[in-house]
What we know:
Elements: H1 3-14, E1 25-33, E2 38-45, E3 48-52, E4 61-66, H2 67-74, H3 80-85, E5 89-93, H4 95-99, H5 101-107
Parallel strand pairs: 1-4
Antiparallel strand pairs: 1-2, 2-3, 4-5
Amino acid sequence: MTFFEVFNEVKNTFSQADISDYKGHLALQINLTGDGEGKFYIELNNGALNIEPYEYFDRDVIFTVSADNFLKIINGKLDPVSAFTVGDLKVDGDIEKALEIQKLIRKN
Length: 108
């Protein structure tokens, strides 16, 4: 898959999530490796969701993961904590905020 195919799949999957009850701000940058390599961000801001194919410099967390594994994570086929434990997902930043992606995954 190309980067934009992966990005569009992520955006379509998360656009269905109901995050209207999310309070606060969370900015996640996703660095995809391998096939589909590229960077994009996911921002949650007081119930609003924004996903754009750009680097986000004021981020809380950076995830570095293969495109294939990230798609598995967002589709519930790979647990992000397990992926982190075995080294398939690297996290740089606030671990507590990184775990909040599970809320977004469960809402889609």
